[in-house]
Design brief:
48% strand, 140 residues, 6-stranded antiparallel sheet, alpha+beta, signal
């Protein structure tokens, strides 16, 4: 009888911290990763960042999310980079950008694609006096 009571108490004592720890993992609001490598043929870097809470362009009360991915490399044949950025705010605004740049002995190139939409809060933006809203409203 005492053995069963001890087991139940021990299991309960272990279950609470494990449950709280799992909840903390599930509610993480950011992720970061980076890699750098260098060798005789050049150097490369890569980084990824994702987060929730604010959209990055302006504070929307904690309802935004964003994602950034960047890669760069340089070597004997040239240097270049590429990037991707996506964000959404809590008002229905969203943006996406993707681009790349490269320069080498035979020339250079650059490309960029972007798209955005305003949020559902119509009228004048209280921070800037500009109409509309959304992710880019605070930048205008």
């Amino acid at each position: 009888m005492h053995r069963n009571v001890r087991r139940i108490v021990a299991a309960g004592a272990l279950a609470l911290p494990l449950t709280l720890g799992a909840a903390g993992i599930a509610s993480a609001d950011s992720y970061d990763s980076s890699t750098v490598s260098a060798g005789p043929d050049g150097v490369t870097t890569s980084s990824t960042h994702a987060s929730t809470g604010t959209s990055g362009a302006r504070d929307d009360g904690g309802n935004g999310a964003n994602y950034d991915q960047n890669n760069s490399s340089a070597g004997p044949d040239g240097a270049g980079n590429d990037y991707t950025h996506a964000a959404a705010d809590g008002n229905g605004g969203a943006s996406y950008e993707q681009g790349s740049n490269w320069a080498g002995p035979d020339g250079a190139t650059s490309s960029h694609t972007g798209s955005s939409t305003g949020g559902s809060d119509s009228g004048t933006d209280s921070d800037t006096g500009n109409g509309g809203g959304g992710l880019l409203g605070g930048l205008l």
